[in-house]
């Protein structure tokens, strides 16, 4: 049985820049075969979109709190959904 697809757009705040968070996030998403993207924000936060089976996306949201060893996530905020890019997970430029 396949879970219904879920599209999530989040803003991750805390110590998440300069600690390898984007690369770690991309690796975790790719390991789960999720589509989407991750990028730094000038505010110091990290923004990400995940698309895939709902149970897998929920698992990804749970693991976002851990991050790489030097990261410290304080808040994960839900943002308005955006159209996912099927099939790939990408690291985007900072905005």
Helix-strand blueprint:
Layout: E1 5-15, H1 21-31, E2 35-40, E3 46-53, H2 54-63, E4 72-78, E5 89-91
Parallel strand pairs: 2-5
Antiparallel strand pairs: 1-3, 1-4, 2-3
Total count of strands: 5
The parts where pLDDT drops under 50 for at least 5 residues are none
Largest sheet: 5 strands, mixed
- The overall average pLDDT, rounded, is 94
What structural keywords apply?
37% strand; alpha+beta; 2 helices; five-stranded mixed β-sheet; 95 residues
Describe what you observe in this structure.
- The chain is of the alpha+beta class.
- The chain is 22% helix and 37% strand.
- It is built from 2 helices and 5 strands, in the order βαββαββ.
Quick recap of the structure?
With 95 residues, the chain is an alpha+beta fold. The protein has helices at 21-31, 54-63, and strands at 5-15, 35-40, 46-53, 72-78, 89-91. A hairpin with a 5-residue loop joins strand 2 and strand 3.
